[in-house]
């Protein structure tokens, strides 16, 4: 299908798209006048039917990408899989699936089960049903499985939580609410931004000031995003956060200074648990903590 008009998502379950964008209609949504769609980047969500025009009279679920034939490719589950998030499908060994398209993350597919439910499935768990005559378009499932034969499911990245709500200012950004769960896939090219995936499988940029990690990144990377680079530092005095965007820390705690904050006298830091926030520079010293007691703490900058 093709977008007749641009649309800005008004909720976490909706897609943002521009006029002329190609979409795959998976099925009618529960709310009348809406479709459940996948965009060209593999992001899934609902779109208003008034903004989408089917390219032909084919049934819902026909794909607009070159990686699958009309209606998708049929496949069988080699192993059972339990969904790890809301954007994935749970299925049993032997279940029939329809592969709609390759997902943005290597080693995953956008698929539908026999009940019409759509979601992500790991390529390691499905095998394409044999076909006779004619060649398939694009990359086949079997080719991907050959590459991933001995590999586990694709790495998911670091888990994080939205400290504040954010409304996307561009097509490459994510809109999310305070408290939403996000997966940090990697650091973005622009400093201060993460490339993330939300709970519905949509990917985009999120400002690092709005996202806090659940814990420190795994040692050695493990396929996730690289640990943020910064300058080692320590807390000269204890500080109690005065807002949701600030850090609480004790005297002597190790910190990582990421950058100067926009407000003068403040630093953007990571604490010892991988949480990110603001800290007053009057309370922070670069390097290793020295021996001996520190003087009384000064007031934080206004």
Strand order of the largest sheet: 9-8-7-6-10
CATH evolutionary superfamily of the largest domain = SH3 Domains
Q: What is the number of independent domains?
A: 4
Low-confidence stretches: 57-70, 132-155, 216-227, 293-297
CATH top level of the largest domain is Mainly Beta
Task: Bin the helical content.
Answer: under 10%
The geometry reads as: elongated
How does CATH name the architecture of the largest domain? Roll
| Rg on CA atoms, Å | 23 Å
Order of helices and strands: EEEEEEEEEEHEEEEEEEEEE
Q: Characterize the biggest β-sheet.
A: 5 strands, antiparallel
What fold name goes in the CATH topology slot of the largest domain? Answer: SH3 type barrels
Structural class assignment: mainly beta
- Count, helices: 1
Q: Mean pLDDT across all residues, rounded?
A: 76
Termini Cα gap: 54 Å
What is the beta-strand fraction?
25-35%
């Amino acid at each position: 299908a093709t977008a007749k008009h641009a649309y800005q998502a008004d909720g976490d379950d909706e897609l943002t798209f521009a006029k002329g964008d190609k979409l795959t209609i998976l099925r009618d949504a529960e709310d009348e006048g809406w479709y459940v769609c996948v965009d060209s980047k593999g992001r899934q969500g609902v779109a208003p039917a008034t903004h989408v025009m089917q390219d032909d009279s084919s049934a819902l679920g026909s794909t607009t990408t070159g990686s699958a034939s009309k209606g998708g490719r049929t496949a069988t589950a080699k192993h059972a899989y339990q969904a790890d998030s809301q954007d994935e499908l749970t299925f049993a060994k032997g279940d029939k699936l329809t592969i709609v398209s390759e997902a943005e993350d290597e080693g995953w597919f956008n698929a539908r089960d026999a009940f019409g439910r759509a979601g992500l499935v790991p390529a390691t768990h499905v095998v394409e049903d044999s076909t006779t005559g004619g060649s398939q378009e694009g990359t086949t499932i079997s080719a991907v499985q050959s590459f991933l034969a001995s590999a586990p499911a694709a790495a998911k990245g670091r888990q994080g939580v939205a400290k504040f709500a954010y409304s996307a200012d561009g097509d490459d950004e994510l809109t999310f609410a305070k408290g939403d769960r996000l997966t940090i896939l990697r650091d973005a090219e622009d400093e201060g931004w993460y490339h993330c995936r939300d709970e519905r499988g949509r990917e985009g940029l999120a400002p690092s000031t709005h996202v806090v990690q659940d814990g420190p990144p795994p040692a050695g990377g493990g396929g996730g995003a690289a640990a943020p680079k910064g300058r080692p530092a320590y807390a000269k005095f204890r500080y109690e956060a005065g807002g949701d965007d600030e850090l609480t820390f004790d005297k002597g705690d190790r910190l990582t200074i990421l950058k100067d904050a926009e407000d003068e006298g403040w630093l953007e830091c990571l604490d010892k648990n991988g949480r990110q926030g603001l800290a007053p520079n009057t309370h922070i010293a670069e390097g290793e903590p020295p021996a001996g007691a520190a003087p009384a703490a000064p007031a934080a900058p206004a």
